[in-house]
User: Fold this.
Amino acid sequence: MPTKEGGETMKDNIYNKFFDKETYERVNKDNKDLLKDYLLELRQMKRSNGTIYQYERDIAIAFIYIYKNLGNKSILELNKKDFRNYSLYLQSLGLSTNRHNRLLCSVRSLLTFAENDDESYDYESNIAKKVHGLAKELTREIFFLTDEQIMKLKNALIEKEDYQKALLLMLCYDSAGRKAEIAQVKKESFYDETKSNTNRVIGKRRKMFSLIYFSGTKECAKLWLEQRGEDDIDSLFIIGSGDKKRPADKENIYDWVIYMKDLLTSIEGKETDFNPHSLRHSCLQNLSEGTHYICRELKMEAGFPIEKLKLIANHSDVSTTAGYLKDKSVDELAEMFSIKIE
Assistant:
């Protein structure tokens, strides 16, 4: 039965719809032995425990489907129709396109391993490769906030004496941090006004780095820490009060940003639809255009080149950073011909 390190079993609702220990114990032993060999291969390749766990439970779903619908055959005996029906089954569960494709990809990877290991497995053709995943869904359009909107929102939160949310807003806007990274920030560095970086946090692909911040964040941090008072919690952001104080998590951060979205909508009298990731996009976009307040403070009206933005975003490649910025091709086309394009 797939477990996380430490013995935690599957908790995701999607898996609980059909996963149970008794059923998995009846799964074809050859299939489970193949999976064990594959997981050993992943460990030898130094894949992370989280990645291995994900493959393990994703493939377990396929094995249970085979047990219930295909006579508990060896997965090496399945044909293209079987895998196509498995794809249709996954679609019937209402999974997202990404989740559906990931489950199919896990099976393909397992069978590629069997195909390549000709010493242990008599398997010559990975049939699952012939069943394609679903077309990717269009991503939600990013809402970019202007520096003026950020300042308008910050001032409104300060006026409400909601200093913690004001600090969250400015730290997100200054650092381009993801909500999971922001949730790891500790309060220690903010007592030293000469510092402009947080403790090291863990980002995507287990990268470790500090988040940077500027005068707007420092202003709000001073207000928040004075309002918060003394406590023995290291986390910069907390929920609760008195003896019930505890560190905030990324879900709390998401909820606070949605509150800010509604507040800005009320202030401006028109719909604003942003989330924590919008603040990351807005930081990079405004730094690139020279409209971020730190650009004015540094007299960098031209903004920063994408190679510098890549460092702030902690990306490995500038092409990833470019994807965070506005697509200006439509504006440039409209300017070329002096027309309006909506």
Q: What stands out?
A: Residues 39 and 45 are 10 Å apart (CA to CA). The chain has a mean pLDDT of 87. The first helix runs from residue 13 to 16.
